[in-house]
Amino acid sequence: MARLLADLYREYGPVFAVKFPFYRKRVFVLAGNKANIWFNRHARTNLRSKDTMMGMETVLGASRSLSGMDGAEHYRMRKAQHMAFTRTRMNEHLGDMFQAIRLELDSWNEGDELVARNACRRIMSGQVSELMVSLNLADYMDDILAFKNRMLITHVQKALPKFFLRTPRMAAAARRIDHVYSMIRNSHTLAQRENKPRDLADDLLSLHAGDPQYFPETDIKFATIIPFVAAMYAGTAMAFAVFAMFSNPDIYQRVRREAKVLFANGDPDPEAFREETIDNAHRLVLETLRLYPSVPLQLRTVMNNCIVEGFELPVGSRVVLASTAVHYLEENYPDPQTFDIDRYLPGREENKKHGAYGAFGFGTHACLAPRVAEYQMAISLLMIAYYFELEILPSSYPLKINPFPTCTPRKSLKFRVKSKRPITSGQQAVASNACRRFRRSEATS
Length: 445
Description:
- By secondary structure, the chain is of the alpha+beta class.
- The protein has a single domain, classed as CATH 1.10.630.10.
- It has 17 helices and 12 strands.
- The chain has a 5-stranded mixed beta sheet with strand order 1-2-8-5-3, with helices on both faces. A 3-stranded antiparallel beta sheet has the order 4-12-9. It has a two-stranded antiparallel ribbon with strand order 6-7.
- Helix 8 (141-156) packs across helix 9, helix 13 packs across helix 15 (279-291) and helix 15 (279-291) crosses helix 16 (370-387).
- It is globular, with a radius of gyration of 22 Å.
- The N and C termini lie far apart (47 Å).
- Mean pLDDT is 90; it is low at 429-445.
């Protein structure tokens, strides 16, 4: 999708109209560096996101959500959830995240053949659910993903009639989501959460208790469940990253050397993960998100007449920001279809050009935690590189992508476990001790 939008930008310029088969009216597409910069500066006062999210909010019984809010109420909600997506909060849960990752990696054995996207989604889902709600909900993620995709297709992209969300399969998935929400609420009483590090569910329940009119109980379910969608996007990106790492032996060896330094004596303390110690893994993440963006565009509705690059956007029209089309422009990234993690080295830093890197979106609704997402993916890649040598099946596999409803590798992308380093109980103990030491130091400070 990003590559297609880049081609359209080259042919038609920064603003052009298209007619999608599932929309009655024309949709205006904004693309290119200048369009991204305009969106970052002016979308808040000229565009709204409410119309895009209304259908999904209604399905889950919410009156509104962070993604569907605009203006002052969006700012307040974003601020209330900010702490849950910080590096500090992640460090408090780091030991639990290590264990969640290792729990999945333990199930990989020599000779196993793994469907890439499924295996990587479980890795990310387990650790993100530990971070967000202090539970490992990896076993429920397939249902959440299926229901989310169907909501996206029926209520946002409008490519299928709404009754497709009421099939027996979707009804069963909805019941599983209700069960997940009950588990979260039942595990977050004051007594159960005493002396435990806070998580997103704690923050949301506190917000509701402090101002139930602003954040009613009907909205808690949507706000609690929807972050798991981000985990699935991260899992998809991880599948691309693992493919890229093991398709490029030099990159794999560079990441593996970093992993050996960090994990040779057990799981490290949070302070060990610095920019220089995870440099190759981090640049691998950046290049993966550039070449294979999971969310290639953003949808909005024009609420005030505005002019973008000399073109007027009429009130009420639908707008697509092709935020990642810039990833395939030669003026930003020479030879853009080549996977090259050295693009981000000092002296090149091709992603630092204004408006040139859109993996996390632009404007007030950009990803709430881009650095944390990069950090989580880097840690997961380091652990995979440390414990495993994988091979792509078949070895000459040409990467095939399913672009709808979001960008994912097809099920035909598989890994075979070629070798596995044993995981000792001592390493698990180090993880728990590291987490406890960090929590004590935070409490003291």
